[in-house]
Design goal:
Order of helices and strands: HEEEHEHHEEEHEHEHHEHEHHEH
CATH class: Alpha Beta
Largest sheet: 10 strands, mixed
Number of strands: 12
Radius of gyration: 21 Å
Structural class: alpha/beta
Helix content: 25-40%
CATH architecture: Alpha-Beta Barrel
Distance between the termini: 43 Å
Oligomer: single chain
CATH topology: TIM Barrel
Number of helices: 12
Shape: globular
Number of domains: 1
């Protein structure tokens, strides 16, 4: 039966879905191993493997085991990692963050020695190194902005001096990208890019990460410096400021609940866009998969592909190593 006026059945979209080869040929967006960045958590000691209870499959690792995991990930197809560090001691000025012999600096050197081809990004923040767990200097019960910038800049320079390929400030202090860019340039690291957490929201999705990074604030919360989840246009303003200050890659964090922000940034700015598939998103998938409620492989790849479809050029994800293995099956 033909319906001439409607055009049916001349147009049949299902024709392009009948065969797996054809489906791949006409697919608009693709997930590739090089799109994924694998986060790792470094802790002091030797032969340390501390499983993170809320993130099955994720562990805090001593530097010797960070090296093993990084090399194994590279062999599996991972091309980039992001390093986070937990220092042996914390203080009020985050001295472990910019110590030339600090935990991240040590891990960068060791991984670069073992696997020079692996691209290393370092998280630049102060929360893991502060006794109070906030991302900036505290004065009179307030997280103060400008005094925090020098510590952040010194941290970024120390990471670059250790051999980091890129630095990624995640603190959300105003002006930190400019301070870091100036400090890197003045120290001879003008070729080191900055991936800025440009639109980082004060989200409930970060809970498991705070266990992994031991960075839970001892009091208060981070809503005075991270963005309100109800705001969208503000993300454009934050990102524009970071671009003016010299960032090279812009980022949205978290991922799944903020794909609209990714799309707005991609359509507005002519820079690569990263997205962080954060700990809470990872843990929800792991928990549901452990109950047999979902197919972990299919849903993980679908989530990651949705981030590409929204406009992300790269994805930081705890699923990275598994996802690449699944892609290659």
């Amino acid at each position: 039966m033909k319906h001439i006026l409607s055009g049916y059945p001349i147009q049949r979209p299902r024709r392009l879905r009948e065969n797996a080869v054809l489906r791949d040929m006409v697919r608009e967006f693709h997930l590739r191993p090089e799109d994924l960045i694998y986060p790792l958590f470094a802790v002091p000691g030797k032969d340390v493997v501390n499983p993170v209870s809320s993130m099955p499959g994720v562990c805090q690792l001593s530097v010797d085991n960070i090296v093993k995991e990084a090399v194994d990930a590279y062999k599996a197809g991972v091309r980039s990692v992001e390093l986070f560090g937990i220092p042996p001691e914390k203080d009020e000025v985050a001295s472990g963050a910019y110590d030339p012999n600090g935990i991240v600096q040590e891990a960068v050197k060791a991984v670069k020695d073992a696997c020079p081809e692996l691209y290393i990004i370092t998280d630049v923040c102060l929360c893991q190194y502060m006794t109070h767990g906030h991302c900036g200097v505290v004065d009179g019960g307030r997280i103060v902005n400008d005094p925090s910038l020098d510590y952040l800049a010194r941290t970024a320079v120390s990471h670059a001096a250790a051999g980091a390929d890129m630095v990624a400030p995640s603190d959300m202090m105003d002006g930190r990208v400019g301070a870091i860019r100036d400090a890197l340039d003045e120290s001879g690291f003008e070729g080191v890019p900055i991936m800025s957490y440009s639109a980082k929201y004060a989200s409930a999705f970060y809970g498991p990460f705070r266990e992994a990074a031991e960075s839970t604030p001892k009091w208060g919360d981070r809503r005075s410096y991270q963005m309100d989840p109800g705001n969208s246009t503000e993300a454009l303003r934050e990102t524009a400021l970071d671009i003016q200050e010299g960032c090279d890659i812009i980022m949205v964090k978290p991922g799944m609940a903020y794909l609209d922000i990714v799309r707005r940034l991609k359509e507005t700015f002519d820079l690569p866009v990263a997205i962080y598939n954060v700990s809470g998103e990872y843990s929800m998938v792991k928990a549901a998969a452990a109950q047999g409620w979902i197919d972990e492989k299919r849903i993980t790849l679908e989530i990651l592909l949705s981030m590409k479809r929204a406009g992300a050029d790269m994805i930081i994800s705890y699923h990275a190593k598994d996802a690449i293995r699944w892609m290659n099956e």
